[in-house]
Design goal:
Layout lengths: L13 H20 L5 H4 L3 E8 L5 E8 L5 H10 L1 H12 L6 E6 L2 H13 L1 H9 L14
Parallel strand pairs: 2-3
Antiparallel strand pairs: 1-2
Helix pairs in contact: 1-4
Length: about 140
Amino acid sequence: MAKRSHSGGPSGSHRTLRIGEAIRRRLSEMLARGEIHDPDLTMMSITVGEVRVGSDLRVATAYILPLGGKDADAALEALRRNKGEIRHQVGKALGIKHTPEMRFALDDTFDRMDETRRIFSDERVQRDIQKGDTPDDTPDGDEEE
């Protein structure tokens, strides 16, 4: 089975990855410089962690996180309210014929990292790691003798 990437293609086409990163950089600049004409957005510090572009280049989803994770819903609402202006400015900066529709979602990368750390710090998991037990250690599900 082909490995799927964040860009939606079988392994993530170079073009979708390149466009996603260009959109991420431009959106980050716009937010940092207060170029979006919305007082709610100019008062927030928002990080754009990643932009995933669909394989057909029609939709780009920006994964964002406000500083400290505070007011995440307000940040999403403000970005969604201004998606037309954002799309226009991104398209102008990138010089591409068809700018993808902009969508916004919360970046849960840090939450997932925290959960992974929590799992690895569990006493039972640490004990298994120390013993070197893995599912592959016992062939065909037989117990070791």
